[in-house]
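@here heads up, posting the sequence + SMILES for the zinc ion run so it's all in one place. Ping me if the SMILES looks off, I pulled it from an old spreadsheet.
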Amino acid sequence: MAKLTAQELQVRKNKLLRVMTGHIGAGSKIGMGELYEVVFNDGYQNRINDTKLLRRLITELRFDGVPIISSSARADGGYWLAAAGSELESYCENLKKHALKKLAQVANLKKTALPELVGQIRLELENSIVRSEMKCFICGSNESQWRMTYEKHLCKECWETIERLKIFREKISEERKHGSKRTGRAAPL
Ligand SMILES: [Zn+2]
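bot reply: prediction finished. Complex structure tokens:
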């Protein structure tokens, strides 16, 4: 199969999603070959290479939150959408199990206990959510470099403006104290 553009891939992905919505539940699975033919309007020549693309689109849809279940049973393999209820439940349970296995691997490598690692991840997630929702108190921008003044979050630019204003005020009051004596008249402001 010729190389597809990103736009063509998106079209195929949408088609795949449409086709899959007609196959809900293990009882109405669709075989790999048939699915490929419907999505790409073409029969596959090379089972491994051609279906690689189909599998990639399936993976993308799964990441989008579409619960596509696959069975590789020789006689009875295929794809179907998890039906609401126990099928969807066990699909989610499986995902969680896989995720926990990976986390256990990380815990092992870092020599921490799994619950401790999960706690750290929770904190990281909470912090990143708070950061992504933070806005500069003055200009409302949500850039990522923060400064604190009077317990308010300020973006770097606004913070620097305030700092310059402080320097300005200090200079002015200096000038008022000393400058007025020298010039014999009051400084402006
Ligand atoms: Zn700002």
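MO: The two ends are 76 Å apart (CA to CA).
MO: One more: Strands lie at 68-71, 78-81, 146-149, 152-155.
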